[in-house]
Amino acid sequence: MRKIRKISLKMIIAFFMFNVVFDIILAPFIIFWGPFEATKTLAVGSVLSSRHPQVVRAFLSDEEISEIVNKYDNSGSLSDIPIQRTVSEASAGITIEDIDGKAFKGKVMLIKDPKRIKVAVTKELEVTGERVSDFVKDTGAIAGINGGGFYDPNGTGNGAFPDGLTVHNGEIVHNNVGNKSTEIVALDKDGNLIVGQMTGDDVKKKDIQEAVSFGPTLIQDGKKGVFQDSAWGAAPRTAIGQKADGTIILVVIDGRQLSSLGAKMSDLYNLFKDYDAINAANLDGGSSSVLVYNGKVISKLWNIFGERYLPTGIVVMPE
């Protein structure tokens, strides 16, 4: 009897493991070749904007991807489901709110004085990146989020090379685009947030003090930017905006979790409209997304290995 029970338990475990492995292998075929168009659309956008876009191209042709991206775009829609906002902390010049949308949760930090916002750059530029918590500690900041995009010419994946234009204290500290136009998120000497296309010459002409490169632009001078939900999918997000009174809006959305699937670009757009932003732009997201406050990570990281090493961050300095 004991032997029979022992064999039965082994068989059950083996059957369970077989089904788990089988489901994992079968899942991408169901997602990309199955009849569930909404699931396919969300997956295409999410994977294309991740570090492994080749996964989509292993199952779908460029023509099929293009058709999905264009056919199912809904970035012009406004959500009729209100975003719940709850103040979780307030101190001198800073307010933190918990936000709860249709399929995402996250945090918003409001900073009254825009001149408190600075770009932090890794101390070992082109060698290795740093964690946002390191940026906050090194600069003596109160808070910080991840910044612009980055590229990896050596294949090390350590966040050593910021992409596009990177500006700190009025100086271009890294430029891998020459004088070509690139999408930028910048602050000028008066603390005005500037988003959209810019060249290295524009940085000097417009007296830009702090800047990183990423996108898409969500709101520019009160008008909606050009973006497609289906090209980006839903994922952890980091973004920045500004109100007419100068207040900076930092947003970090949790994603790829049961409690929060992540945000689409239209979700971010709707969120910034809800906060009366006149300019706003998306920053690097995915496993880079993080919000650090008073020395602690207060967002929910998707990456099980903790904070990612990055070339740039955006920090909030003391008053």
The rough form would be described as: globular
Q: Report, as a whole number of angstroms, the end-to-end distance.
A: 74 Å
Strand content: 25-35%
The total of beta strands comes to 20
The biggest sheet, with number of strands, parallel, antiparallel or mixed sense and barrel status, is: 8 strands, antiparallel
Count, helices: 8
Low-confidence stretches: none
Structural class: alpha+beta
Summarize model confidence as the mean pLDDT.
86
Side by side, the strands of the main sheet go 1-2-3-16-15-17-13-14
C-alpha Rg (nearest Å): 21 Å
Note the run of SSEs as H and E. HHHHEEEEHEEEEEEEHEEEHEEHEEEE
Domain Phosphodiester glycosidase: 140-317
Pfam families: NAGPA
Organism: Desulfosporosinus fructosivorans
GO molecular function, one term: hydrolase activity, acting on glycosyl bonds
Quick recap of the structure?
The protein has 319 residues and is an alpha+beta fold.
Task: Set down the secondary structure blueprint.
Layout: H1 2-33, H2 37-48, H3 54-57, H4 62-71, E1 84-91, E2 94-100, E3 105-111, E4 117-121, H5 132-139, E5 143-146, E6 150-151, E7 161-162, E8 165-168, E9 171-175, E10 182-188, E11 193-198, H6 200-205, E12 208-213, E13 217-220, E14 223-224, H7 229-232, E15 237-243, E16 248-253, H8 265-274, E17 277-282, E18 291-293, E19 296-297, E20 312-316
Antiparallel strand pairs: 1-2, 2-3, 3-16, 4-20, 5-18, 5-20, 6-7, 8-9, 10-11, 10-12, 13-14, 13-17, 15-16, 15-17, 18-19
